[in-house]
Each structure stands twice: as structure tokens, then as C-alpha cells.
């Protein structure tokens, strides 16, 4: 049965904080309407409203970031309407500005994801977490990502071999569930093209996961220039104990072996004790690295006087250090998105942020309104 294009669709649109500020990007979040207005962690992080928008107006949008999130996802219905009502060239025109794609807890099949990826012409960054693809499926997905000239990938599963065989990326971020197993790095894998690495989460195997990764990090990333180390991979809260001192020795060893241009350490420091521990970390790093800076910031939703995270930046690459401070301090974010992290190692990344955010939940307006007002239905 042919799916005709609708006259209009009901979407959720985030309110613009300013009509003076330029918005170079459009974030298209494809999700079940029960999740409208929520970020990946289930929080409503920005105000917005349901908007009835003309289909022609929506089709004229040029999304820069596409997110496919959560179960009962309407992505398939969107692709079907596009395929049955437009030529391939028109569909590619709609997606021509997409620079990043993210999958999170979604039930989209690998076939349908590939169908969507074939509508794109270029893609700079790809992220995923809690997907159910098998390794043969990942191999096909990664081949397509290579054709799209992918430059950065956020890894949340043990597909390092498949990534190495198919991609030449300059940025890798270790984050999400179930996480990458540290033992995968002990197999002699070398990512010789990677310039920036963000270590945010690992698959938990034991109490020494962080130390074991640092032991082989220089071999696994021999041309690394920037390392972001989230203390969450060591412990949720920072304590300046013997283990911390040993890990700092390892970080300094990595810095020296690779002659890093920039090193960042991020930690949750909600109280005086953890803040004092972070100050000790900074003092320890200053012994071996020049230009060590310690900053504290409050994440979004907290007042500026309630700093709950700390950031240490160090190194001789002033441009990257400045970018890191902006990503964490100015944006008040503990998890910078891939579109921003790519600026650490790529000169020609087109700005994605700030961006207008739109949530698309399918074509059944009555059902969308029902799910939005009563998410448990």
C-alpha cells in the first residue's frame, strides 16, 4: 500500500531562546511521541510545544544532526513516505546537510538503518548506544559509513576489529552501553589515524579496567594528539588515594610517550572533599606538564554557584585547550556531542550548534497527541 505524503505533521519543537542568535543547525530527533521533549537520559532539558507544521515546510528543512532514539521508533514510516513520494535525488537533497547521526536504545533494524544511510552523501560523526546489531550487521553498516567519509565514531560495543577494518577515523569516543571491553585493546589493535580520544565509559569487567586501558593506550593509539579522560571510568567520585596517584602516573606516561598536545581530565566533584582531590590532581600534573588549568562548573539546571564538576586542561595546543574549555565550561556539559568533539582534530567541520530541535513521531496526529499527553499509553 502506497503511503501518500501528508498535508501536515504534528511535531514537537523546542522554543528558541533567542531570535537574534544564528542557528546554523537543525536537530531532527526521530522518536516515539511519548519521548517528545526528552534528551537521551529521559529529562526534559528544554521547553517546547507541539506544532502542526506543513509537510512542505518540513521537507524544506535541512537537518544537520539526525537522532534515532528509543523503541517503537517511527523512522521506518518516515523513510517509506519519502521513498514512495520523492525521487532519490530529492531525498538526498533533504539529507544533504546531515553531519552527524546518533542511535540510542532504538529498535531500528540494520536493513532499515542502511536504507537511511544510503540516502546520505556525507557523514562526519556516528554514535550509538544500546543497539542490538550483530557483528556481520555492523560490518555492513561500517562499510557504508566508510563510503560516507566518516571522521569520528562513538563506540559502545565490542566492534573494534570491524571498525579497524572499515574506517579511518580521526576521533574515537568510548561511551554508552554496554561499553567496550578493555580486553579488546590488548589484542594488538592500532588505530593509527586517531588524533583525539575521549574515554568516558567502559564495559565494567573489574576494578582495574582504567589501569589496563592506560597500560596499552599508547600502543593502541600511536598518533594520538588529544586525550580526554573522564574519571567516571575510574570511580564515580574522585578521591586522591594511592590508586589515583598510580593512574596519574600512567596518564603522565601516556602524555610523555605520545607527546600529547592536550590532556583533559573531567571529574564529578560535588563537595569540598572531591574538589580538594581535584586540586591535588592538578598539582600532580603540573609537575610534568606546563600550562595546567583547573576549572569548576555547574551542569545545566544548577546555578553557577553550585559547581558539581571539575575540568583540568593541560598542554601546549592552545587551540584545542580553548575548544575543550568551551565544550565543558561554556556549554556546562559533561558529555560533549560528537559534532563538537570533532573540532578537536578536524579543521573543516561545519558548525552544527546552536541548533533548532525538532522531534518527529510519525504521521498519526491523534496518536501523537495522546502519547505526548499520556506517555504511559
Architecture overview:
It is a single chain. This protein is of the alpha/beta class and 377 residues long. Helix content is 32%, strand content 20%. It folds into two domains: 1-124 and 349-377, no CATH class; 166-337, Rossmann fold (3-Layer(aba) Sandwich), CATH 3.40.50. The chain has helices spanning 55-60, 75-85, 88-94, 110-117, 135-147, 160-166, 209-220, 242-258, 272-286, 318-330, 338-341, 365-373; strands spanning 8-14, 25-30, 48-54, 65-69, 100-104, 125-129, 152-155, 171-174, 196-199, 226-230, 262-268, 293-297, 309-314, 355-360. A 14-stranded mixed β-sheet has the order 3-1-14-2-4-5-6-7-8-9-10-11-13-12, with helices on both faces. Strand 6, helix 5 and strand 7 form a beta-alpha-beta unit. Helix 4 (110-117) packs parallel to helix 5. It is globular, with a radius of gyration of 21 Å. The mean pLDDT is 93.
Question: Which helices and strands occur, and which strands form pairs?
Answer:
Blueprint lengths: L7 E7 L10 E6 L17 E7 H6 L4 E5 L5 H11 L2 H7 L5 E5 L5 H8 L7 E5 L5 H13 L4 E4 L4 H7 L4 E4 L21 E4 L9 H12 L5 E5 L11 H17 L3 E7 L3 H15 L6 E5 L11 E6 L3 H13 L7 H4 L13 E6 L4 H9 L4
Parallel strand pairs: 2-4, 2-14, 4-5, 5-6, 6-7, 7-8, 8-9, 9-10, 10-11
Antiparallel strand pairs: 1-3, 1-14, 11-13, 12-13
Helix pairs in contact: 4-5, 7-8
InterPro entries: LRR_dom_sf
